[in-house]
Amino acid sequence: DSGVTQTPKHLITATGQRVTLRCSPRSGDLSVYWYQQSLDQGLQFLIQYYNGEERAKGNILERFSAQQFPDLHSELNLSSLELGDSALYFCASSVDGTGVLHEQYFGPGTRLTVT
Amino acid sequence: GDSVTQMEGPVTLSEEAFLTINCTYTATGYPSLFWYVQYPGEGLQLLLKATKADDKGSNKGFEATYRKETTSFHLEKGSVQVSDSAVYFCALSDHQAGTALIFGKGTTLSVSS
Q1: What is the structure's pLDDT at A48?
Q2: Which positions in chain B touch A97 (Cβ < 8 Å)?
Q3: For A28-51, what is the mean pLDDT?
Q4: d(CA B14, CA B109)
Q5: A26 φ, ψ to 5°?
Q6: Average pLDDT over chain A, rounded to whole?
């Protein structure tokens, strides 16, 4: 158990809908990262928050957004969903904003299926 | 941009066989290198890391050496077990580009008894 929790574990929804994925980082970790794992694209970095502020952006679509709340939990919002958004979404946390020398701890993921 | 290339799988081995999974990288800066493992139905776990050239990361019998001259970070284990069956990801974090991880596509390892 990494200490990172993600809810829900599974999500099935229809095209055009909007969903919210939730992540609680390990106690004491200030940085949260979101990654998408799909069969064709592999594991891709989406976005990073550090202590409530956006720190870095990766291949995140404009239809997707995220935020980190004062209690440090984070939410990833996916809207106007398309079939191609079906993937496993991972959240990871690390102790500070550098992350390079600090391990990123991954949650178990949320599997999103868009039908 | 930065990228990681690792050998295609699946890799199928018998118990106690020697394992090598090749990983090469392209980076503009001075990256840190990682191997992560993903067991079925679980998230990723850090297996080992190396932060500068010639560093050797090791854990649970797995080893990898950061080779700057060949831009490689190959994963090795002398004697695999059935419990090592999983997907292995090579990744880098480029100090100049931020701290997010850039992953290879993953290599599935299947070990039979």
Answers
A1: 93
A2: 99
A3: 92
A4: 11
A5: -60, 150
A6: 93
